[in-house]
Amino acid sequence: MYMNRVEQLRRLQMIDFALQEAALFLNSHPDDENALQYYKKFQQFRKQAACDYQECFGPLTNRDNNANTWQYIDGPWPWESEA
User: Fold this and answer.
1) Which of 15, 36, 50, 73 lies 20 to 30 angstroms, CA to CA, from 61?
2) 25: in domain
3) What confidence tens digit (pLDDT) does each residue in 14-23 have?
4) How many CA atoms lie within 13 A of 34 on its CB side?
């Protein structure tokens, strides 16, 4: 399934939101096994979504730049909308 840059960034935002909410819940319920499994599942979703994005559009952050060139500065920055 093809998603454009905006759709893939939105997907990452939704996954990041779910991860953050689960982390906040786990702060007050650290023994909740279901919540921990949910968190781990969404960690995997995040890893795959980031990989998918980077394959199509390049690094998400400067820490993700693994190329021989500094690709991170190419193409719109995450806060720039496509014209």
Assistant:
1) 36
2) yes
3) 999 999 999 9
4) 0
In a domain, 80, yes or no: no
The DSSP string of 55-67 is HHH--SSGGG--S
CB contact set of 44 (below 8 Å; sequence gap of 6+): none
Per the rule left: phi > 0, alpha: psi between -120 and 50, beta: everything else, 42 is: alpha
Amino acid, single-letter form, for residue 27: N
Structural domain including 45 reads 5-64
The span from the CA of 38 to the CA of 7, in Å, is 23
Give the mean model confidence (pLDDT) for residues 12-35.
96
